[in-house]
Predict the structure.
Amino acid sequence: MSIRQAQRSGGVEVEAREVEAPERAERLAVPMAEPKGLTQQRTQAAAAPEPRAEPAKPKVEIRNLNFWYGDFQALKDISIPVGERQVTALIGPSGCGKSTFLRCFNRMHDLYPGNRYQGEILLYPDGINLVDRRTDPMLPRLRIGMVFQKPNPFPKSIYENVAAGLRIRGVRRKSLIDDKIELALKQASLWDEVKDRLGTSAYELSGGQQQRLCIARTLAPDPEVLLLDEPTSALDPISTARIEELVDGLREQYTIVIVTHNMQQAARVSQRTAFFHLGRIVEWNDTELIFTNPKESMTQDYITGRFG
Amino acid sequence: MPNDHTVKSYDQQINLLTRKIIEMGGVVEQQLAAAIDALTNRNMDLAARVIEQDDRVDDLEEEIDTLAIRLFATRQPMAVDLRLIAMAMKVSNDLERIGDYAANIAKAAARLAKVPPLKPLYTIPRMGQIAQEMVKGVLDAYVDRDTQKVLAVWHRDDEVDEMYNSLFRELVTYMLEDPRNISTCIDLLFVAKHLERIGDHTTNIAEKIHYMIHGERINRLPRAASA
């Protein structure tokens, strides 16, 4: 009811209430002194469209994917879209197939004989099937970056670690490599800590720094998709928070798939969550729905700690 | 709710939280019944006891808050647990308000017992009865996790609202008839207003129980249209 309507109806009480409301709204809109981060977050939240109403365009689409380690079928009929510039979290108990699934993306399983893929992992915009035998396994590896549970820097300098991906791709110009390295280290929020000692061994860094270095190494060649396989499970809470902050920032540019055992982490960093169990996807949905109101009782049992 | 948690103490804490809500609900329910009794039977002792009970309700609300906060901090609850614990905090808040209103009714009852009765009261005891039935219904719904009971309570709020409106007109008439009635009428009007607010808080609780069970809000459309 507008103020004018209230006046017409002569409702004194209603009128008083109606006048008050916009004032309160104004107070909310102009915070006195608020940390910048908060304001930014709020505007982002306000700007972000209702996830359910407008699903992100898929960057990768998995269709009826099956995978066998020899005779053992580790993935059963997986179908799920991975939204562009979204974080998709994969959760589930150990051995449920989430890491196996992640490793299909860049054909890591090709390294062992007897492993077999069936189905499609389509990488857009070109829609190439990554697990097709005719697809060169180098192709997904060049377009998709991966970071593992334990930091695994090369036994080289910080500089050479980040440069490695560029050198493989034939980049030779020193100035270009320098620029890319600075950018990647900044994206991984490691630059300020290492800018004065790029020549020192990567092994001199702390675990959290090494993990961020690995992320920088992965980012330097501009991958289209970033796969994170429990990237914080070996890190302390502060390093974990920095990686999560990083993931939040990277989401604007990259499509990210993250495997995590930490449910709260999945709830914090992702927009979509898929729950794996015994090689199948039990349920996938908007993260908020998975963690407040999952449809499947098995998902509920798992995320609330009632499993088994 | 579903299976047990792997960690047994988690279940124990959640059960304790639920028991505290039920206990608090029981105290509030008694408070309300006694307040109405004190009002209709002009019983000042009973009214005094209702007012004393308020501290117990406040203590229970604090216990529930502390328990819930501890559960949030230590268990990082998810899904149904998250809803149950978050709603426990909100339901206890509504129960505390209901307790406050019951105490206010008792205070009015104590004042009204000292003056000659205005007229035989019909509407207020009737409103009180409905409010009591609603509170009882919502507590049953909480214990049984019963959506039908939740909705039954939720739909009854209109009844209380209508009775309040008709009583309002009735009391205004009495006041116009004889200004000496004014202070008594105002006390009665406040009692009615408190009962109406109790109905609102009970409806809130019904909505929270619905969310707790289903993770979805009760559709507000039919009620908003009639308001």
